[in-house]
Inverse folding.
């Protein structure tokens, strides 16, 4: 079980993963050593999976965000393994969700422009074994993007 200090550590690090242990301890109201022990336990128990930098897509010329709905021909293990290997090898595919509803997978894809998206679609997705059809939605604006998880229920 997480107590209020654990939740405070997680909330603080979600907002700023570069906090030093001292800054984190001050923020949550603990001294340095107990804060460090709690942080190491949260990491060891898998509450904190990893640390990363969040880059600006526009600054690195990634301007198109697309959501591709993928319908599969079948769900045989060999077909899914091939599809998921292709997904894992494609850096433009940021997220892959197995979903319920009218399609099997939802992919979040980010590319430079429409031409590069079309190339990815034509050269990787459409020829991939097991894909029956794709349908794409393009993000026009992104009024909210967050990686912070809601911690109110912890």
């Amino acid at each position: 079980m997480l107590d209020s200090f654990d939740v405070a550590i997680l909330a603080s690090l979600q907002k700023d993963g570069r906090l030093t242990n001292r800054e984190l301890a001050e923020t949550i109201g603990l001294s340095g050593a107990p804060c460090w022990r709690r942080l190491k336990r949260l990491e060891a128990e898998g509450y904190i999976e990893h640390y990363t930098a969040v880059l600006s897509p526009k600054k690195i010329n990634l301007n198109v965000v697309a959501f591709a709905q993928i319908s599969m021909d079948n769900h045989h293990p060999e077909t899914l393994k091939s599809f998921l290997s292709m997904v894992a090898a494609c850096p433009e595919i940021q997220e892959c969700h197995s979903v319920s509803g009218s399609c099997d997978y939802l992919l979040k894809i980010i590319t430079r422009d429409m031409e590069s998206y079309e190339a990815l679609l034509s050269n990787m997705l459409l020829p991939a074994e097991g894909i029956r059809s794709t349908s794409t939605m393009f993000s026009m604006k992104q009024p909210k993007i967050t990686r912070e998880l809601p911690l109110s229920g912890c």
